[in-house]
Amino acid sequence: MGKISYNGLEIEINSRFGKKFLERMLNFANDVFVDDVSIYQDIKKESNISEFILFYIFVQKLEKSFLIGLPKNYQSKKYNDLRFKGNIDIVEFIKHNIPLKAKVATKSREQIEDVHIINVLYKALQVIEKKNSSFLKNIKHIKAYLTQNKSEHCFIKESLNKAFSSKALKNQNYQNYKELLKYAKMIIESENFTSKNKNNQKSYGFIINVAELFEIYISKLLRNNFEEYMVDSPKLEIYKNSFYKRYIIPDIVLSKDDNYIVFDTKYKKMIMEGKNQNGMGDLDRNDLFQIHTYMGYYQKIGKVLLGGLLYPIQEFEKEKCHSENSILSDEYKFIVDGIFLEDSQDKEITLECITQKEAQFIERIKELLKQSF
Predict the structure, then answer these.
(1) pLDDT tens digit string along 173-198?
(2) Which PANTHER family match (predicted)?
(3) DSSP H helical ranges for 111-259
(4) What domain count does the chain have?
């Protein structure tokens, strides 16, 4: 979904599942779980809903990405002190340390956080704060860190160009920042378009992926209905201390003692169509391999009770969606499931229907867990 503006004409691109489902996801994202309260009307008074979601998703992604740390580049740093770091800087040594003194001029290659990426993220937060400071209530520590480490004099156009071309983004550990920077650019450009500045920009637009919002919605739905479990999206380090170490971050992990339920959410079309002459079907092979990687990780450290992919599904047949076991173990099932939303072009889905489908989804998960013990 998104927004396109051109010469005063504004076009809103809405969610394929309608405003009611989007409203439901937004309510959950803001911890409003009752059926007769909505933040949707309040959003419309202040700004368009697409912009609200853009801000929300950016903040969520920033909070998640910051766990791994900010992207770093190798840079040369020079020292002239009592400590010996790296190699002797011959030129500086001759200039400053002869005749011999206690201090030694050295230089070393060190990983340093990319200041241009910091500048871009800081600027995006500035824009959000001006429009609605409540977005930053959970990331004040991140805002403070960016403020402390940004450039004293920042030219945002230069920082945008250098941030997107940063060598640090080639590191697999920082892949999340590529998408995060795209959202930051959208936010910065939105300010340029709405403010009365000198550029006389006539057109502006952005498209956002609602997948992050769907993940938050499903996560909170599960947390509310499985209170005995801790629900998290943990950062997991694999092959620690090796040059090929990586971080993996499952969308949703429910844990209790050494028992785990592992899910990945996908905001994609899902009508349970398999591989045929027209293509590979609805389930992406990368998504399938990814969730099995997560399940395999937890199988090694404890007992997996259930694993699967969760969608806003438009077709559901238990026999087609729930396997008898997983390829990793006969002790638990692999499933494709989610919130059943009929694809009806004729009428808007009702809130009553959505809550009913949520309850059915939760009951299916509970029944599967009974079979796992």
Answers:
(1) 888 899 899 999 989 987 765 544 44
(2) PROTEIN MCRC, TYPE IV METHYL-DIRECTED RESTRICTION ENZYME ECOKMCRBC
(3) 115-131, 140-149, 156-164, 176-194, 211-225
(4) 3
